[in-house]
Amino acid sequence: MTFFLILVAPAVVWTAARLVITIRRDGLGTRVPPPSRPAWSDAVQHLPSHRF
């Protein structure tokens, strides 16, 4: 069992490190996504000032 852990532990660490490096290089989690719709204040500016 110890021999198995000695072989598997470095492989798990290496795989996790590669995953972290790939995600950081891709930019995931570092950029703010664009809003899905315009802000409420932008939509209010185009309303008429009088009632219909």
From TrEMBL:
<feature type="region of interest" description="Disordered">
    <location>
        <begin position="29"/>
        <end position="52"/>
    </location>
</feature>
<protein>
    <recommendedName>
        <fullName>Aerotolerance regulator N-terminal domain-containing protein</fullName>
    </recommendedName>
</protein>
